[in-house]
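Example protein was shown:

_____
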Amino acid sequence: MDFHRFVQHARAHAKSRSRAAGQRLAAGQQPTTMFITCADSRIVTAQITGAEPGSLFELRTAGNVIPPYSLHAPSSEMATIEFAVLQLGVSEIVVCGHSHCGAVGALHGGGIDHLPAMRGWLRPKAPRKASDPAMRAEGQEHVRAQVQILLEYPFVAQRVAEGTLRVHGWFYDIETGEVSAGAEHAFLPL
């Protein structure tokens, strides 16, 4: 889809929804779920989840990376998670990785030397050969690592301990469209 089609769609957007829907959305947001996923253009959260406007609070980052919590080095990701949990009061957080992820490939030795900001953000590990070109196992391992980092945020840990917040690790297979959820030792179909 080229940019011209995006512009045409944006021009027609206001006519494609009811006035009542616009008024409902303007009254404020009350999402129950935060969805943290990759910025990859092939991940369309509303298509995957069936979410309507206002029901998902989204955070998209390269490789769905969640930085460690540190008030000495705040980031937009930390601020967005804080807002979702403490201000909006979401009761669910989904961290969703995906197959064929360039960031996960970069974490495992993919060439990103020409992208210094990306290299600094991802902090690549020592290269290792992937067992699958789609890097499914590596992507799932990455989701587990990001969930663990998220659970170390003090306000997330507190809400989880209180039973008012649940954190989920999901994995979207771009090729098949299947979504699986992280269980104790494996990712299983939803």
The chain has a mean pLDDT of 90. The chain has eight helices and six strands. The longest helix spans residues 136-151. The longest strand covers residues 92-98.
